[in-house]
Amino acid sequence: MRILVVEDEPDLQRVVAAALREADYAVDTADDGEEGLYKAQTWDYDAIVLDVMLPKRDGWSLLAALREAKTTPVLMLTARDAVNDRVRGLDLGADDYLVKPFELSELTARLRALIRRSKGQPRPVIDIGEVRIDTASKSVTIRGVPVALTAKEYSLLEILTLHRGVLVTRTMIYDHLFDENDESLSNLVDVYVSNIRRKLGHDLITTRRGHGYIIED
Ligand code: CA
Question: Where in the chain is CATH 1.10.10.10?
Fold first, then answer.
């Protein structure tokens, strides 16, 4: 999963990005509203963390422009006691908000819930045959036995699971698994898939040669 953080306060941007990377998200950052809008329109992020007060273009203006084309889940960061700010953000199409200052654990929990809902998956636990994926604890079991996946293996499995029944192209996988600073080779995806199959069974993920991968519904 890949998240864009639009926040002009350097310390807060750094802390939020670090917490999200710690939670195994790929993270891009933007320092102002123009850069944020450009990135939000260019990439299909799984969610956007959007500050309201930003240089060049404020969070509301960014959100209004984004909503003309995209439904990317947006969590807005608003000032304390600014009820009008929150109402305005929700009316413009924000999906959730947090009041500054906030706990990082609440931010990551809200983002997890936001991303699940946006993929039509309100429950955190998903069963595919004998494989159970818990998107809250990011853990996987098969027939009740815990299976250790690396962060990238888990992220790839989660992307395919949340889109199950739908072909996920290699480009989509690459865009959601890696951030703008990552220079990993795209053939790593094949390695992750083969590792997941070795750990969870060969039949879980189907290859559509030349197109991508699918977990059948
Ligand atoms: Ca700000």
Answer: 125-214
* Model pLDDT for residues 70-97, shown as the tens digit of each residue: 999 999 999 877 788 888 888 889 999 9
For residue 85, the CA-to-ligand 1 centroid distance in Å is: 13
Contacts from 188-197 at CB under 8 Å and sequence distance 24+?
Answer: 188/152, 189/156, 192/150, 192/152, 192/153, 192/156, 193/156, 195/149, 195/150, 195/153, 196/149, 196/153, 196/156, 196/157
The answer to whether domain 2-118 has CATH 3.30.360.10 is no
- Burial zone of 155 (CB within 10 Å; 0-12 exposed, 13-18 middle, 19+ buried): buried
Tell me, in angstroms, the distance from the centre of ligand 1 to residue 117's CA.
Answer: 27
pLDDT digit string, tens, across residues 83-133: 888 888 888 899 999 999 999 999 999 999 999 999 888 788 999 999 999
Q: Quote the ligand 1 centre to 78 CA distance (angstroms).
A: 9
CA of 122 to the centre of ligand 1 (A): 31
Tokens at residue 95, please? 């999906």
Instruction: Choose among 19, 16, 21, 22: nearest CA to 30.
Output: 16
